[in-house]
Amino acid sequence: MADRLAQVSSHLSTTHSRGLLAGEVAIITGAGQGIGRSTALLFAKEGAKVVVSDIDGEKASAVVSEIKTAGGEAIAVPGDVGAADFPKKIVDATVAHFGKINHIVNNAGFTFDKMLHTTPDDAWDIIMNIHVRAPFRLVRQAAPYFRLKPEARENRSIINVSSTSGLHGNVGQANYAAAKAAIPGFTKTIAKEWGPFGVRANTVAFGLIFTRLTAEKSAGVSIKIDGKDVALGVPTPTTPEAASKSPYIPLRRGGTPEEAASAVLFLASPLAAYVTGHTLEVTGGAGI
């Protein structure tokens, strides 16, 4: 026990001046914008070498440019996380460039809202593929770089993104709520199976974070998945003004992508060295 405490203390002290994730390698999906982008920038600021992935290659490259301009290290690996070849593509590219993987942040996702009785099979299947099957396949592909012998172990973690919809359900989101509800169970299983290898696995469940997914749907922003255009946003978004008066958010405001990223950083960092199998709710108190 004393040796482990000394190890953690030493890691914190030696990385403090260089960043909480100094020298570590992180794959972040959906990192071209929103929470993913903020997470990539923050991880890089804290010393991580970041693999920026997004379905929009131009946006992924733009984030890499931001990181490099600030003095960090990053590469872009664009692609659809739901594609059959994606896990091998990104894991191989990461290891070829950086030689290892310390963290995976399964952040990529979107909503495809319909009322339960009008939800077609494809709207259900697409959401399940991106939010459940894709994280599973990526983590499985990366297994050889996490299930390591004691002498090869460093700080390593898996962080899977869920939502208050997954914790409490939400009108018009049967598909999304079901997919996000699966994440804590998947994460806890990783924590139990890979804990003996020193790997931590945690879920972060976001509430109202102001991104394109919580913006006005009439803005016309969409994403192309499996050849289909999926409209993003919500019909009646919660504005900052409305959030300030909403009794369901104790802090009376929505969160920023930067605040969301800070929660992800905590879970990845040595500050959470004894935290695994946990679901961290980043909601401003909504749902309590």
TrEMBL record:
InterPro entries, A to Z: KR_dom (IPR057326), NAD(P)-bd_dom_sf (IPR036291), Sc_DH/Rdtase_CS (IPR020904), SDR_fam (IPR002347)
Pfam assignment, any one: adh_short_C2
Keyword Nucleus set for record: no
GO molecular function: oxidoreductase activity, acting on the CH-OH group of donors, NAD or NADP as acceptor; quinone binding
All copies of domain Ketoreductase, residue ranges: 24-197
Top-level taxon in the UniProt lineage: Eukaryota
Record keyword NADP present: yes
Keywords assigned: NADP, Oxidoreductase
A biological process from GO: fatty acid biosynthetic process
Family of this protein: Belongs to the short-chain dehydrogenases/reductases (SDR) family.
Protein name per UniProt: Short-chain dehydrogenase/reductase family protein
